[in-house]
Design brief:
Blueprint lengths: L1 E11 L2 E7 L12 E5 L10 E8 L3 E7 L3 H7 L6 E8 L11 E7 L3 H8 L6 E8 L8 H6 L3 E6 L6 E2 L2 H9 L6 E5 L2 H14 L3 E4 L15 E5 L5 E5 L6 E3 L10
Parallel strand pairs: 7-8, 7-11, 8-9, 9-10, 11-12
Antiparallel strand pairs: 1-2, 1-6, 2-5, 3-4, 3-6, 4-5, 12-15, 13-14
Length: 258
């Protein structure tokens, strides 16, 4: 399916937000799901690129992405009026029912992409988000979270904005003051492991959105599997594109991902 690009702008160094004309099936998308995009009309690059759904309104679907390789570089050069070959929505998203009394979102870097969409679905009385990035210019959507009723705390690696340090450390400090009913997290694997370990030790339910390289995007090729655990301790491999990208943090074998 080909959809028209409505906008494509750089919102932070190396990070772009693309608006695409809405289509019927995407209107029922869940937070945490993604779309699979063909970046070129040629076979270079061959594989599609998975991008998390960032926001949806009545007219457009917004995607947030970081320029990392040839595929995302091609996407950053696209202009309004051009069309993209898109498949989606795909994958298993965040579970937001039943609505708990208090929620916490932990977002590291480009991890703000799926969790801002998630934030629109959370109806908890107490809502907190922790945002972390390398520098202040890479902090994304602080004001947007506030408009949605979230209390926001920010940390940067270099201390150029907010508190200096890692967002995982800020999360541990927060838990000394308050214990949320559930935690949602997205970001680098090292951050997700820290959050998952902390939640496990504190008995807090945690859902994480995991990124992985994908080929087919629909669970057929098994190219994006990760190692997970069953309740009896046995190992099972699950597909990030089909069984995820959102998982219960307690079932992921984090050591195999680091």
């Amino acid at each position: 399916m080909k959809q028209e690009i409505l906008s494509n702008e750089e919102v932070a160094p190396g990070i772009f937000r693309m608006g695409i004309a809405i289509w019927k099936r995407i209107q029922s998308a869940c937070p945490g799901q993604f779309v699979h995009i063909r970046c070129s009309s040629t076979f270079e690059p061959l594989l599609r690129r998975p991008l998390s759904i960032h926001e949806i309104d009545s007219n457009e679907v917004k995607l947030l992405y970081k320029v990392i390789g040839s595929g995302t570089k091609l996407l950053s050069e696209k202009k309004p009026g051009e069309k993209l070959d898109i498949v989606g929505p795909l994958g298993h998203g965040f579970n937001v029912e039943p609505s708990p009394e208090s929620v916490m979102i932990v977002a590291g870097g480009i991890g703000a992409a799926p969790v801002l969409f998630l934030a629109h679905f959370l109806k908890a009385a107490r809502k907190q988000v922790l945002i972390g990035a390398r520098t202040g210019e890479l902090i994304l959507y602080e004001e947007e979270f506030k408009k949605l009723g979230f209390s926001v705390e920010v940390t940067t690696d270099d201390g150029s904005y907010g508190k200096k340090g890692l967002v995982s450390s800020l999360f541990e400090e927060f838990l000394k003051r308050e214990t949320p009913a559930i935690v949602y997290a997205c970001g680098p694997v090292a951050l997700l492991k820290e959050v998952a370990d902390t939640c496990g030790n504190c008995g807090i339910p945690c859902q994480v959105s995991i990124e992985n390289q994908m080929a087919c995007g629909v669970g057929a090729c098994l190219g994006c599997v990760i190692k997970t655990k069953e309740k009896d301790g046995s190992t099972i491999y699950r597909r990030v594109c089909k069984d995820g990208p959102v998982f219960d943090a307690s079932i992921v074998s984090w050591e195999s991902l680091i």
